[in-house]
Write a structure and sequence with these properties.
- By secondary structure, this protein is of the alpha+beta class.
- The protein is 42% helix and 22% strand.
- The protein has three helices and three strands.
- A three-stranded mixed beta sheet has the order 1-2-3.
- Strand 1, helix 2 and strand 2 form a beta-alpha-beta unit.
Amino acid sequence: MQAHDIMTNKVITAERDTSVEQIATLMMKHHISAVPIVENGRVVGLVSEGDLMRRVEGAVEKQPGLGGI
C-alpha cells in the first residue's frame, strides 16, 4: 500500500486564526483526521485528531477534582 491509496485528493485547509472548534467541525464534516494550516498559500502547520485529543486531555487535567480520572 502506498500513500496515494489512502490519501484524500481534495485537501481541506484552514488558516492560522481558525478556531479549534471550527477545525474539529471540518474534520468531522469531511471525514478526515488532519487539517493543514496555510498562510499565504503555504502550509505552515498541521492540526490532527491527536492534537485535539491532547488539548481535551490537558483541559480535563487542569480542572479541579478531575485530575486523576
